[in-house]
Design goal:
By secondary structure, the protein is mainly α. It has one domain. It is built from three helices and two strands. A two-stranded antiparallel sheet has the order 1-2.
């Protein structure tokens, strides 16, 4: 997060930088802010915040071009190992909670 940004603006910027998908900052919601632990903070002590954006169409995902930081975009429906353990944990938690609400 840059000093001049709201958390919504930072989230929208990060999504765009990683995926080239534009999400209006006002459309982002906090999904999970985990407590301080090695799993959810970076080596330099930054806290990770997981946000939820509205669903985008599969056609938007098809326009993605892989690059150095992101190799692919997929729609996850079951827990899986992602690039970082914290992301894998957040995905599993999201899917578990989403399933239990349905």
């Amino acid at each position: 997060m840059e000093l001049h940004e709201t958390w919504q603006e930072a989230g929208a910027r990060e999504v765009f930088e990683e995926t080239q998908i534009m999400i209006p900052p006002r459309d982002l919601n906090v999904l999970h802010v985990p407590g301080h632990s090695p799993l959810f903070s970076t080596p330099n002590g930054q806290l990770l915040v997981f946000l939820q954006a509205p669903t985008v169409s599969k056609n938007v995902l098809k326009t993605f071009i892989p690059h150095a930081e992101v190799q692919a975009l997929r729609i996850a429906s079951v827990p899986e190992a992602l690039a970082f353990p914290s992301h894998s944990h957040a995905l599993s938690s999201y899917l578990r909670n989403r399933t239990s609400v349905s």
